Amino acid sequence: FLWQAQFMGYFTWLPVYLVDVRNFTADGAVQINQIPVVVLLVFSLIGGMILKTGVGVVKLLTFALTLQALGWAMIPFAGDPIIGLTSLVVWGIAAGLTPTSLWALPSTLVGGHRAGTDAFAVVLTGRYLGILAGPLIAAGMFNWTGDWITVAYTFVAIAGATIIGTLYLGTRIRDLKSGN
Asked: How many whole angstroms separate alpha carbon 169 and alpha carbon 65?
């Protein structure tokens, strides 16, 4: 839920932010919005290759979520073109690695041979709730504060909560596997 909320928040927030705050044209904002999309597509595939090397799902997911928080945290400094472009690429990398990890998570939790459709129900339920919540959170924070940067900081906090949840999940998985 929290990851998808920030994902949808990003892709609904970014074009409006670019037009309202950075004075881009609507067409320019759409073109810039494609940078993280292209990076995301590439890193979704790379994420699968990384998982096949034996890197654990929780490790990759924690890394991806940390990158995502970093991408959000760079937004207030994105007036500098290098930082702005870097934030788009960093966020795109994270947004590609994260869903790859999430789709691999059910087989990690219940075992690959038992990860049927019901194992994905939780992932999909969280995803769809996040699709609904992300744009509402972004709009709500902007309406409350009148400041788009507050939206970025809100999603840094959401990313932090997601990282904490992922680390807790990793600890629980390790404990279950060791019999504790």
From this structure: 14
Q: What is the largest CA-CA distance in the chain?
A: 57
Amino acid at 173: I
Which residues have a Cβ under 8 Å from the Cβ of 94 and sit 6 or more positions away?
43, 64, 65, 66, 67, 68, 70, 71
Name which of 37, 29, 12, 40 is nearest 151 in CA terms.
12
Dihedral Cα 53, 59, 62, 68, nearest 10 deg? -20
In tens, the pLDDT along 60-86 reads 999 999 998 998 899 889 888 899 899
Q: Two tokens at 23? A: 């004075």
| 175: Cα separation from own chain's centroid | 26
Tens digit of pLDDT for each residue in 112-126? 666 666 666 777 777
What residue ranges in the chain does DSSP mark as E strands? none
Q: What is the pLDDT of residue 33?
A: 87
- The C-alpha atoms of residue 77 and residue 156 are separated, in whole angstroms, by 14
Tell me the whole-structure pTM to 2 decimals: 0.80
pLDDT in tens, 126-157: 777 877 788 888 889 999 999 888 988 998 99
